[in-house]
Amino acid sequence: MKKIASLSLLLLFSSLLFGLDFGGLIKNDATLLKNNPAPFMFENNLDTSLFLKIPFNEDGLSYFAAEGLYRFQTYDGEFTHIVDATVLKFNFSVTSPNGLFTAAIGRFPVSDVTSRFFSQPSDGVYLNYYSPGFTASMYTGYTGLINSQLTTMTNMDAYNLIETPVYSLSLPYLMVTGGVSFPYVFLNQTISTDIWGGIALQGVNGNIAEASFVINGPLTATVFHTTSVSGSLVSEDQHRDFGLLATTNITWYLNTLNMSFSGDILYASEKFSTLTATSGFFTSIPWQNIFTTGFTASITPHRTMYLETGVDAVFSATDMQYEGIYLDGNFHWQFFSDTAIILQAAHFFAAENSLPATKISLGAALSF
């Protein structure tokens, strides 16, 4: 109790001395989803989130941050209340003539360099050193205390999670990672790489490791690219599966109405595995046995509006069998500085061996 009281006094003193930043967001998303042959399903998520940031010094690089969320969810006529502490973070930074050292402890989002293998909140310790010549980072964390109703991890159905109406614990993994990044190595290209290890705990089967290599930078003054290669290794009992993920993106930026045009290619082998489930527009699924190639265009017709549309051809990676065409678009209108409306729509035009799907979502957000 004395430690808690001392910590509370420290936060109060810091807020009085260096200022206090706080606010919130109210957001509602109404969604119609149809996966043939099932009928249309309706889902509505009303989120209220609050954030707080207390700096410990004048430059604001050392601070305490907290974010909480309450969701009232309606799905297929059923109501659910969800509560989560999405961020509880102490951040400490020390500057030097050659760089910046940062240490963070608590709950906060963490991601690998591709944002495809692991990209979610976790409870742990993060260390980072930044200098003009390179950046190095390390992280160790635990995933078993986060709310699985808001953060979906793969293979959750195979584990007997403790579920409650408000808060459900997630898959217990001990995560360990380290990575480095070298900016402007040659031709203004930046090279980044990291290695992740996930140790399964409390009866979960399947330790997992992943390594990624990313190169990105300009090809011309207005054309930029990002290319990544990742490998995953899952060890379960005496069985091991190795998978491969490769992606490339080339984007052309125009000054006229902030237009951009990009082309993408993605290949994921049948055995490629992730820990964070893919947050696709239709559903959360891992990237496995898929090859896609597509095109995306975006435009800002007004400083308050953003419009984007894309199309992708989808194939099976094992035999290159055509699966269908995925078409999507979204419109974002921030008609006041603190108010926005988001409209999203997508349809999967399936081949004979696949099932079509449709999704339409309308959202509104108010910040305060």
Describe this structure in words.
This protein has one helix at residues 2-18, and strands at 21-35, 41-55, 63-75, 78-96, 99-111, 119-130, 135-142, 173-186, 189-200, 207-218, 223-236, 239-253, 260-268, 278-279, 284-285, 290-302, 305-315, 322-336, 339-350, 357-367. It is mostly beta strands and 368 residues long. The chain has an 18-stranded antiparallel β-barrel. It is globular, with a radius of gyration of 22 Å. The two termini are 33 Å apart.
Helix and strand arrangement:
Elements: H1 2-18, E1 21-35, E2 41-55, E3 63-75, E4 78-96, E5 99-111, E6 119-130, E7 135-142, E8 173-186, E9 189-200, E10 207-218, E11 223-236, E12 239-253, E13 260-268, E14 278-279, E15 284-285, E16 290-302, E17 305-315, E18 322-336, E19 339-350, E20 357-367
SSE arrangement, N to C: HEEEEEEEEEEEEEEEEEEEE
Low-confidence stretches: none
Q: How does the overall form come out from the CA principal axes?
A: globular
Helical percentage: under 10%
Class by alpha and beta content:
mainly beta
Distance between the termini: 33 Å
| Number of discrete helical segments | 1
Query: Count the strands?
Result: 20
What is the radius of gyration? 22 Å
Mean pLDDT: 89
The profile of the biggest β sheet is:
18 strands, antiparallel, barrel
Share in β-strands: over 45%
